User: Fold 3-hydroxyacyl-CoA dehydrogenase NAD-binding domain-containing protein from Deinococcus sonorensis KR-87.
Amino acid sequence: MKIQKAAVIGAGVMGAAIAAQLANAGVPVLLLDIVLDGNPDRNAAAKNGVQRALKARPAAFMDPKLASLISVGNLEDDLSKLKDADWIIEAIIEKLDAKRDLWQRVEQVAKKTAIISSNSSGIPMHLQVEGRSDDFQRRFVGAHFFNPPRYLHLLEVIPTAHTDPEVVKAFSEFGDHRLGKGIVVANDVPGFVANRIGVYGMVRAMTHMQQAGLTPDEVDQLTGPVLGRPKSATFRTADLSGLDIIYHVANDIGAVTPPDEDFSLTDTFRTLVEQKKWLGDKTGSGFYKKTKGEGGKTRILSLNLDTLEYEDRGKVKVDAVEAVKNQPLAARVKALYTAQGKEGDFLRGVMNDGFWYASKMAGVVSDRLQDIDNALKWGFGWEQGPFETMDTLGVQTVIANLEAEGRTLPPLLQAMKDSGREAFYQGAETVTPAGQPTAYQAPYFILTDLKKDATRVIKKKPGASLLDLGDGVLLVEWHAKMNALGEDQLRMIQEGHKAVQSMGYAGLVVGNQGENFSAGANLPLVLSQAQDEEWDELDAAIKEFQKTTTSLRFSPHPTVVAPFGLTLGGGAEFTLHADHVVASAETYMGLVEVGVGLIPGGGGTKEMLLRFTDQLQAGQPLLPAVQRAFELIGTAKVSTSAAEARSLGFLRDHDTIAMNRSRILEEAKRQVLALAPDYVQPTPRQDIPVMGDAAIAAIKSALYGMHQGGYITDYDLVVSEQLARVLSGGVGNNRTAKVSEQHLLDLEREAFLTLLGKKGTQQRIGHMLKTGKPLRN
Assistant:
């Protein structure tokens, strides 16, 4: 049941995006759709789907070239081509009869080993395959992706009573390892897991909003990042999803669930969908509406629920949110749950509804509590699932609140009350849907589980830790805000190297499971030292930084770096010097120092020049390699994926790209163990070719034209000239020379300090820290 080729039926928004994600994973895919009436191109619908995916923002493809893995066809001429597919998934209209008719046709042509799936968001899987053969039903399993499939981690796998467990296992492994998804095995009930609980929470939020007299933008302030949820919160998410989708899902689930679950929509919501046809982003109007103001600037208008008119309410601030927004998540959640006034009443109502319903659904939608938590986290972008949030508040506190509202406790909460447990998750233990203690089964190799075992932690500082990953591999984990690089992070890498050698370990992994790998250097500290003119201290600090980045390559043991998310500046420089890199497919890597008036000072400039000159064929001129490095660094280019990072030169051909971010530490550990037996310590290069003044002259000529044309500012010119000097090798005129890595590192450090002493650079750093945006001075 190995999936080498796939087919997607239905080239709408979802089907085309699923095809794109298959292409991202390197899987050849056939995309089929109907023949459009009156269109001479019989494959137009499928072609349109590919083009829509290519134009999608955020991008559906990790690299546009991957679209070549998609071939197109139509359901009248090309159905027989399904015989080559190892996996067939439909993403057609959400109508049961249409799906049944399709499966009847598919069964006639699909090979007998193919796995068959539906991407339906709510139609039970067993109803779709009624009347199909036993063999077809054995190979049929629901595969519900969340939109956009590239970015939302959740994949609900939904077996029926007839699905072969081996099919579930094989497909789940494919979804996990190849497609990079977080797998939740859902029961075949209406709405499955995430939509069943998520849509319930959304419709209840609408009711509580109107009862409390709040506005959509006030609710989005209360239910967004302050609660550890996305900025789109409740009603912006509704607009993005489509109010018609929520309308149909809520009605469909409500029709087949008990009255006490209450999926009833408010009259206002029904009016928006049924009468106004305001369906959110797809129609331009929903709970919000975008308009153009003076000077073409976009304005976001909010719906007045009483008048159904749109109003420009400016930037809405909610007192309850402002009071806690700078506190840690646990403190914010506790404070908001006990807040006074209409905001507190609203939040308690919504949160208690969610707690009650998630507990009621335990054992109904899924048989593990962590699957319910993961479904909400991976499908809707929450930091904590409902059971984790109840643990934060104290389960007995939540139970007391629910009873005070006169609610009947679901069996799970009644069992928790009877046992007196304060948390669903305690150490390595959780509870079953019946409230019985059981072993927690982590879905992946995750650091939070290692931290529960104190014997794993070898050293710990506020910003970094050294952990034992087992099998002779150590991990340096950073855990500062945005993993900004400072003394803790550097010292822990040095401690890691020492521990590997002194304690007989095989090698070292550098990675973490924060939100991003690293956003770069600790800019506030750098600016403060520059303003205080602590030049000796800064010179020593840069030397230490260079020594630590290059230690990843020149240590006597293998070192593997596992980047993901933002991997910028110094974070990229650490990655560039690893023996091997295991990068998450969603890695956004770049040497961005010019944005704050600096150049890479931790070996990044040196490394790009070295890599690009090494790629030249014998006899080729050096200048194109120098220009390539200059353009990459001088424009602060950041990759939009690991695939693009490889094409830009940040990753090498032999580096590993892992689709599932949760697996990169596991793979990094495996790479250390593979390298260790025959590892030979490298020595710094002494033979890097440079051009001297000839390179500076060529770059300055181009810079002059750009400056005259207004493409770069006066201070861009200052920074670029320092970058050009480093890339030239600084060796003078009339000769091509070969220099050492240390020579280039010394030039980097000199340029970095020179720029740091200039007012223009200090202004750029200050502006970035204040606004989060680059200054063009």
In short: The chain has four domains: 6-185, 194-439, 448-592+638-678, 595-636+683-777.
